[in-house]
Amino acid sequence: MKSFTLFKFRTMSRDTASVASHLASRSSITLFGRFLRKRKLDELPQLWNVLKGDMSLVGPRPNLFNQEELIQARDALDVYSVRPGITGLAQVKGIDMSSPQLLAKTDAEMISTLSVVNYFKYIFLTVAGKGQGDKVSR
Known about the structure:
This protein is mainly α. It has helices at residues 31-38, 46-52, 68-76, 89-93, 100-113, 116-127; strands at 56-58, 85-87. It has a two-stranded parallel ribbon with strand order 1-2.
C-alpha cells in the first residue's frame, strides 16, 4: 500500500474530523458540497491522480490512513496488489459504505473478475448514476 494525496473538491467544512464521509455529520457538508456530491462532481479532481499514475479509473476506492479495520481486511485479501480507483464494483453495487469486511471482499471479487468489459461496465454504470454515492449520518 502506497500513500498519496487524493485530490477532491472540498465538500465539508474545514473543522470536520478526518473520518470516512459516511461517518461525518450531515451538517458538516456545505451547500455547494451537497450539489457536487449529488452529481458526483466531487470526484473529478481525482482524474489528476489517474494522470499522475496514483490511481486507475477502476479499482478499489482509496481508504483513509486511519481506517485500520479496512486496511487489515484488504491486506488479508491482497487488495493492495492493484492501484486504487475512482469507481469499482462496491460503488456500482451501492455497498461502498458498508462494513470493512464486506468492502474488502467485494474489492477482492472485483479484482479477480476484472476484464476489459467489466472495466468499462463499471465506468458506464458510475456515469449513469448507479450506486448511492456518499451517504452521511443525519
